[in-house]
Write a structure and sequence with these properties.
This protein is an alpha+beta fold and 184 residues long. The chain contains 5 helices and 6 strands, in the order αββαββαββαα.
Length: 184
């Protein structure tokens, strides 16, 4: 039974790592290439991150420059950045793409908070899906009479307590990020 709880914790630790990485992308008014790191385009029939087909650099505190290795993909990269709904407006000059980060407004802060909350909800859904998968696994095992009904109930309670702890962690991480975004 400890194996099941350890498996659950391992999966949920991955969710926490991912949410921290995702939320770290959102900074107030500062250029950071990590915000576009997971933007992908179709590149010769493969979905490819733009970082694999371009040179991406932060040229100053408020500007990211993207220089694709092949100029014919500039429009695709611009469109992918816009479609990602990051609130960025790429500027294409034919050779390079520049993304300017204007001084942060109250409206942009609220927009970033909405994005952060969406990311947090994705993490909570992932936690709940992991819980469902583990409980399904326990149910199948109990049907084969490998686990008693009392043990199943105890295990389900332990699983729920663990899930509640991780949901609380996600909520705390989200609240801290919201405070950071709104206070700058």
């Amino acid at each position: 039974m400890n194996d099941i709880i350890n498996e659950l914790k391992t999966e949920l630790d991955k969710v926490i790592t991912i949410i921290k990485k995702e939320l770290n992308k959102y900074k107030c008014g500062r250029a950071d290439e990590s915000i576009i790191s997971d933007v992908k385009i179709i590149y010769y029939d493969n979905l490819t991150p733009i970082s694999n087909i371009s040179l991406i650099s932060v040229t100053d505190a408020r500007t990211i420059t993207i220089k694709p290795y092949e100029k014919k993909f500039i429009k695709n990269i611009c469109n992918a950045i816009i479609e990602k709904k990051l609130g960025l407006n790429p500027q294409d000059n034919g050779d390079v793409i520049r993304i300017f980060f204007p001084p942060i407004t109250e409206e942009r802060r609220k927009e970033l908070v909405k994005i952060v909350n969406n990311e947090a909800e994705k993490a909570r859904v992932s936690v709940r899906n992991t819980r469902r998968d583990i409980i399904d696994k326990i149910t199948k095992t109990s049907k084969q009479d490998k686990i008693s009904k009392d043990d199943v109930k105890r295990l389900e309670k332990d699983i729920q307590n663990t899930v509640d702890k991780y949901i609380k962690d996600i909520n705390d991480i989200t609240i801290n990020k919201e405070k950071e975004l709104l206070s700058m």
